[in-house]
Structure formats: structure tokens, C-alpha cells
Amino acid sequence: GIDCVLTEQTSGEVATLLEHNEVNLALGAHRQVRAFPTRPLTPIPLTVVPPDGHRFLSRKTLELAEVVTESLLVLHRGFLSREMFDSACQLGMHVPSIRHESESVHTLLALVGAGFGVAIVQANAHIDRTSIPLLQDGKLLQVALSAAWNPHTHPPPATMDFVDAIDNVIRERIRSTIAVANQALIPETKGK
User: Fold this and answer.
1) What is the pLDDT of residues 36-52, one digit of tens each?
2) Using one digit for the tens of pLDDT, what is the confidence trace for 173-190?
3) Whole-number Å distance between alpha carbons of 55 and 142
4) How far apart are CA 26 and CA 184, in angstroms?
5) Three-state SS sequence of 41-87
């Protein structure tokens, strides 16, 4: 019985909408909404989506250093996954070979299908192709999200139920990516 109106903005604009009481609830990067009451959501791994026949298709996980030299297809700056990717590249002192930027994951995936390069996308995207968890120094690269609300307004009582439902959807969408990454990261034990 609750009517939801969804608004998409870059993560930096989300805090402004909250501040001006233009939205009741915002989902964004934790660091950008931490001035408000927040609830952390399940972190979302970044994945690599290679084209058909690519050498990466035989891999369970990929290190950032291996991926940055490929022709990369990424979202525009302002998207959380792009910010995370850029931060990881900067931290690792990598200069990525970006071939195309888009505002749409579906455009990136279509370009992968046409063989234009390798896409970097969040694991919760609807991906019909093989996606491989992206690591940096053996650790899964993940986007930290939070749900936030303005402390000066009173969100509807169902707000936390809605946040729980969103978190459940995220967990379900990334379950297989996390399982693959965890399995690949478990060190092999030698016979006794």
C-alpha cells in the first residue's frame, strides 16, 4: 500500500536530495551519505565481463593489474562502480586503458557482445554473460553502499522494511559471485 517514486542521480547528488528533503530515502556510497542516519547494505563486488573467446573466460577471479591493460568498457564518472574502479587503479598506481564510457550497463554489455572490449560492472547487474570477480591484491573489490534518511523528517514506518527488502535483493543477486570468489580464494591444502 505504499507508492514509491524512484529517482536516479549520481552518488554525489543523492546527499543533496536528502538534505533538501526531496527524497525520504537514499541509497548511495557510504562516505557520501554518512552525515545522515544510515544503515549499511551488503557490499557489491565488481566483476569483469569478457567477450566470447577471451582468455579471461577460463579464470575464476582476476586481479586488477591483469585487467587494466585490456580495452576497458566502464560507466561514466559519478557511478559508484566507476569511483571504486578509479580509486583501486589509483591506489595500485595503474593507468587503465579505457576504450568507452557509458551511462548504461546494458550498453557496456552490448559492446562486450560485439567484441569491443572487457566491461567492469557491479555483480548485481543483470548480466547474461560470464562475469568474473575482480580482486586487488587478493581481496574482492566491492562497492560499499548505505541507505540514508534525513534526520529532520520522519520517513514512513515501512522504510526499514523497504531497506531490508533491497538488501535481500542485493544479497541474492551477488550470491553466486561471492561463492565463486570465496572458493577461488581458499588456499589449496596439501595432503597430510
Assistant:
1) 888 889 888 999 999 99
2) 888 777 777 776 665 444
3) 24
4) 34
5) CCCEEEEEECCCCCHHHHCCCEEHHHHCCCCEEEECCCCHHHHHHHH
